[in-house]
Design brief:
Length: about 240
């Protein structure tokens, strides 16, 4: 049966394999028609280990390794070197690790990819997690800077350090895209198709709206992975990008 969406739209959507056991994740990713990208997060990586990246790549999938590295420069460099050597093409780091650590991470990723003949990955700096709400950020972390100020500041820090993109809320995409044109990548979680539950995301937007605002790729998890018909849910999200 012909797909009701284009390959280009499928390339724009990363399906998060969060909450799945390794066998579930591999079975799920193998049966979704047209799937291009999957996200491997902390829970799956801790349970399955680096092998899951190779197994997903063996299925012909591209991997977003979302481990959000945040450490001293040498450790971030080593972690990104090894992640790139696995063949992960998108890798997250925390922008608040600072410029020295971000530069080291970027250098490590390039070295890891080149040493193993992989594509050089794009590092994505996490600015403010989409689960944070501004008042709670100020109250719990004593950060007086508002999200609207903090996100672009961290994005600029990352870009200046040579990082290839950011993870941000879809509500921040338009302002960041105005400051950072393509090919700087803006990858947005917190995507909820019409009628989907918000869950633990505080700052959300629909797929078409996020792309129109300037997002490069969208991360969508439960609205697809927990749907009765995951292939259908994925197709619906892809088709929304073609409108």
């Amino acid at each position: 049966m012909a797909s009701s969406f284009s390959a280009e739209s499928a390339e724009r959507i990363i399906v998060a394999l969060d909450g799945m056991a390794p066998d579930q994740a591999l079975a799920f990713s193998a049966q979704v028609e047209g799937l291009c990208w999957v996200k491997v997060g902390l829970e799956l990586f801790v349970q399955a280990g680096p092998e899951v990246v190779a197994q997903l790549r063996d299925q012909g999938l591209r991997v977003f390794l979302d481990l959000k590295f945040h450490d001293i420069p040498a450790t971030m460099a080593g972690a990104c070197r090894r992640a790139a050597a696995l063949g992960a093409e998108l890798i997250t780091v925390h922008a608040c690790a600072g410029s020295d650590a971000l530069k080291a991470a970027q250098a490590g990723a390039v070295e890891g990819a080149q040493s193993t003949g992989q594509r050089v990955p794009t590092l994505l700096a996490v600015t403010v997690l989409t689960s944070w709400e501004e008042q709670r950020l100020q109250r719990e972390l004593d950060i007086s800077q508002g999200i609207a100020e903090r996100v672009p500041r961290l994005a600029q820090l990352s870009a200046s350090a040579g990082i290839g993109g950011c993870v941000c809320s879809p509500l921040e995409v338009a302002a960041l895209r105005a400051q950072h044109p393509e090919p700087f990548a803006l990858v947005t979680p917190g995507i909820r198709p019409k009628g989907a539950a918000v869950g633990d995301q505080a700052r959300v937007m629909g797929p078409a709206e996020a792309m129109a605002a300037g997002a490069s790729k969208l991360v969508i998890g439960r609205p697809i992975t927990q749907a009765e018909n995951s292939s259908g849910a994925f197709a619906t999200c892809c088709a929304a990008l073609m409108v």
